[in-house]
Write a structure and sequence with these properties.
Helix 1 runs antiparallel to helix 2 (29-45) and helix 2 (29-45) packs across helix 4 (61-78). It contains six helices and no strands. By secondary structure, the chain is an all-alpha fold. The longest helix has 34 residues, at 98-131. Helix content is 78%, strand content 0%. The relative contact order is 0.11. The protein is elongated.
């Protein structure tokens, strides 16, 4: 279920940034590039199969595979606008995979818990050091 939500977040972000509906049947360059970025990000951020990724926007697995193997490398080399878009979205912290977000929050929690646990000792030391 989380994988579906993650793909939906990626889809909405790309549609917002490009103004193109990813599940439309249009085959113009901008639509194809927007879908390619979607496929790449879904592949990087979810554990879904090519079929699941394609099905999410009414495309088949062969379309996803073709986009990843042929269109994406070309897009990075010859389409600066879409290269910038991919870089921007791929580094967006809100779109990090949920596992990574969870691990970061867990680490912050552990650090804060340690700081809270050690706080009374620090306060005691400070009080005793000022007495001498």
């Amino acid at each position: 279920m989380e994988e579906v939500k993650e793909m939906k977040r990626i889809q909405l972000t790309i549609e917002k940034e490009t103004g193109k509906k990813l599940n439309s049947p249009h085959r113009d360059r901008d639509h194809v590039y927007a879908r390619t970025i979607y496929f790449k990000l879904c592949r990087e951020r979810t554990h879904n199969t090519l079929k699941q990724i394609g099905d999410s926007i009414n495309k088949n697995h062969a379309t996803v595979l073709h986009a990843l193997n042929n269109i994406f490398p070309m897009l990075l080399n010859y389409e600066p606008k879409f290269k910038v878009l991919y870089s921007k979205i791929s580094t967006d912290k809100d779109l990090e995979p949920l596992e990574i977000q969870y691990e970061k929050l867990k680490l912050k929690y552990e650090v804060l818990k340690y700081q809270i646990d050690t706080l009374p000792n620090k306060v005691k030391k400070h009080i005793y050091s000022n007495i001498d």
